[in-house]
Amino acid sequence: MTETRKYADEEETENVLRGKNEEKEKVTQISNGASYLKHILIISTAVLLTLQLSTWYSTLLSSPTKSTQKMVSTKSLVKNCGFRLSGEIQQAILDKHNEIRSKVAMGEYSLGGKNGGFLPAASSMSKMSWDCDLEAEAQDRASSCDLSKRVEIENHQDGNLRGENAFYFQTEDSDVKNAILKGISEMGQEIEKFGIGSVSDAKYDKRIGHAMQIIWESTQKVGCAIQECSLKRGGRKLFETAADSQFKVAVCKYYPTGNIFNSQKPTAIYQQGIPGENCAEAAFDPTTGLCVHEDTKISEK
């Protein structure tokens, strides 16, 4: 009986141990299952988060424009017109104009004065392109070496109005590019210096007339020229610091012209809003905030 009992005890012990092991295996399986579910949950959460971020990023990129708006990344490249300006200077002048316009379009044009702040962003600011006909007209104007006859808007023989910005300057021949870019920058900063009442109900102000032409929304083309001159006005040198009164004239022509004000209704320099929102048929360049018209659009690729 003792041996049988002993055997029975051992069998019972084995059964108990076997039961515990089975329970342990079940616990392990449950644990492994929970771990598996945990991994699935983590992976699913990561995928969901990735999709949400992807959707948010796509929305961010597309938010400035309608969903059907064509987007491009462009640089307006200049084809040398064969006049006096080098292709390098042409490109620099065009880029400077578009740089100023881009600041306005993106709401980054800083206002000076006590209040500070920025001009409101523009929803359909055109990217300018270089025009050889305008360069030729600018060259004709500059060749007179006399800007005393102020011409800000000119009715050309084709019946279309041209806008104009022009100035005298002195510099060494090797520094002409930097000098003309400085002149354009200073014209573009007139609103920062003197302020503006409203861009949606603008009034002509000669203190900021150059700047208004540069940022006039509908202007799409520009052409400029530089002329070497030597001229006395009223027996006095234009630049007293130059012994031989050598100076240069810079003229830029614009089309369509800016600075056309309607006395009967408000005149907007540009439409305020999200950059590119109202580019209409033009493509939108999100890197500059400008609307790229077909003859302006030359891909960087």
TrEMBL record:
Residues 1-20 are annotated as: Disordered. Residues 88-262 form the SCP domain. It holds the Pfam family CAP. InterPro entries: CAP_dom, CAP_sf, CRISP-related, V5_allergen-like. It comes from the Eukaryota. PANTHER family: CYSTEINE-RICH SECRETORY PROTEIN-RELATED. This is SCP domain-containing protein. It comes from Caenorhabditis angaria. The lineage of its organism: Eukaryota, Metazoa, Ecdysozoa, Nematoda, Chromadorea.
